[in-house]
Q: What sequence folds into this?
């Protein structure tokens, strides 16, 4: 029993150290990317296209719908308690500080995280990674770094986009159901939106971007030789990315409020 | 050109030594063929000798420089002057034939003029016998075509050392004839070839040296003549079953 527990602990510590080593290797290679990454720049562009640009439709729809729901619910309920103006801080807390970064992260996990793990896993099984090594192309610099940068940068920009549509786009939808004066709405949004709301939101998307990309790449490279390992690793990547993002979110909120 | 020497190499997988080599020499400018039964570790030995797969212990020397401890700059130089033809082609599936050929050139010769770059790709593909569209992706090609492109990709940087892991297996006779001629032509240059071939005729034609491997261990190594005429019973059994059976 004690032996089993010991082995379990050793294996988990080893996996954690390996994961940290992998993370620092990617960070180190990222610093050399601008100098040595001439063949990887196209991969970075494509990653931003897949992760960022192609997710814009989903993100804008969700942001507008969510913003509209909050405004409609808020202007219906809050005035009954004499707290009609609370809608603005609530909107900013939900859209900017919490759901913006988190929903963008969830969408990116589902869209790009799974794609990254599957693609890298399939590269491993088909010996394409070995072909990169044989050609003198470092898989970390060529495969991992552009995906790391692409996902992190895209998530940061998607979050800004989500905020724009969540706070501004949703206003126009609301006009069909519950008209609000434009001048009053935008004045109060800007009045209640503080710099630390934006910083907190951006820090979260940055951290989530790092988590999603590293976890997806890590599990992709964990595939060894069979194609049946690919869906298994993808499931593990999705599960781990969700849990780590939520934990990181809790930690950031905790740090912010203490 | 490179002289490759493996010293005390072990590679362990699932607590089993899949490669356990005390010493193996692949001389400069010669063709060395690795022979052994299926599952004996030929492909793994080739990948270890090319420093593609990591080892658990030992050293791999290329012209007396240890590949395992080599600086990234020197290792890149080694990669520029060496290449690997994979048993299953291992073309990059998300890239077209042109992009598969272009990437090694862009990696090692970033300043190459576009005209020279494209001319080189066209010439090497024609040499390997590839006549289909250069915009096809590997999934749209036959296994024979993929192997042609894989061989062409390995030659695109004009390397002095080429590892070939069964490049002719599963290839139809017409393609095999073209690729076989190309391999013989490479053998007739000053390039070093370290290969694993399943055709006894081709081995007899190009092998200067033989390495006999069984269960990840090298049984015997030497010139083609000395190994072919070896009195070692293990070597004789392998040679008779794989080389002299026809």
A:
């Amino acid at each position: 029993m004690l032996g089993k527990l010991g082995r379990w602990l050793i294996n988990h510590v080893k996996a954690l150290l390996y994961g940290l080593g992998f993370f620092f290797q990617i960070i180190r290679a990222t610093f050399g990317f601008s100098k040595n990454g001439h063949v990887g720049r196209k991969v970075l562009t494509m990653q931003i296209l897949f992760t960022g640009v192609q997710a814009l439709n989903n993100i804008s729809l969700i942001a507008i719908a969510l913003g509209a729901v909050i405004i409609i619910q808020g202007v219906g309920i809050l005035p009954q308690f004499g707290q009609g103006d609370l809608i603005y801080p609530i909107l900013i807390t939900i859209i900017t500080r919490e759901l913006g970064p988190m929903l963008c992260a969830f969408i990116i996990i589902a869209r790009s995280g799974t794609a990254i793990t599957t693609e890298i896993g399939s590269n491993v099984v088909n010996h394409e990674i070995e072909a990169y090594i044989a050609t003198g192309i470092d898989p970390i610099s060529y495969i991992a770094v552009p995906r790391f940068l692409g996902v992190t940068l895209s998530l940061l920009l998607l979050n800004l986009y989500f905020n724009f549509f969540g706070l501004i786009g949703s206003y126009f939808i609301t006009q069909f159901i519950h008209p609000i004066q434009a001048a009053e709405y935008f004045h109060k949004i800007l009045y209640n939106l503080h710099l630390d709301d934006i910083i907190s939101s951006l820090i979260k998307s940055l951290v989530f971007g790092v988590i999603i990309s590293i976890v997806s790449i890590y599990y992709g490279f964990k595939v060894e030789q069979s194609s049946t390992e690919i869906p298994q690793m993808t499931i593990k990547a999705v599960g781990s990315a969700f849990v780590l993002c939520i934990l990181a979110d809790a930690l950031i909120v905790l740090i912010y409020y203490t | 050109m490179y002289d490759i020497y493996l010293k005390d190499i072990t590679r362990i997988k699932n607590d089993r030594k899949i490669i356990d080599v005390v010493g193996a020499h692949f001389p400069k400018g010669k063709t060395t063929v690795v022979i052994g039964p299926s599952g004996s570790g030929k492909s793994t030995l080739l990948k270890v000798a090319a420093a593609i797969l990591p080892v658990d212990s030992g050293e791999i020397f290329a012209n007396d420089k240890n590949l395992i401890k080599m600086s990234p700059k020197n290792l890149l130089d080694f990669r520029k002057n060496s290449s690997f033809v994979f048993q299953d082609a291992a073309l990059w599936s998300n890239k077209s034939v042109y992009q598969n050929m272009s990437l090694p050139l862009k990696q090692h010769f970033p300043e190459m003029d576009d005209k020279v770059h494209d001319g080189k790709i066209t010439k090497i593909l024609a040499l390997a016998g590839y006549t289909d569209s250069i915009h096809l992706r590997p999934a749209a090609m036959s296994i024979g075509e993929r192997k042609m492109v894989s061989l062409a990709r390995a030659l695109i940087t004009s390397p002095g050392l080429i590892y070939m892991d069964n490049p002719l297996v599963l290839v139809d006779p017409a393609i095999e004839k073209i690729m076989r001629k190309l391999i013989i032509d490479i053998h007739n240059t000053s390039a070093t070839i370290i290969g694993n071939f399943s055709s006894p005729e081709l081995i007899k034609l190009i092998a200067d040296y033989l390495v006999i491997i069984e269960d990840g261990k090298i049984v015997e190594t030497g010139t083609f003549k000395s190994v072919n005429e070896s009195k070692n019973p293990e070597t004789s059994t392998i040679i008779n079953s794989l080389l002299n059976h026809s």
User: Anything to note?
Assistant: The interface with chain B takes residues 38-39, 119, 122-123, 126-128, 130-137 of chain A (CB under 8 Å). Chain A has ten helices and no strands.
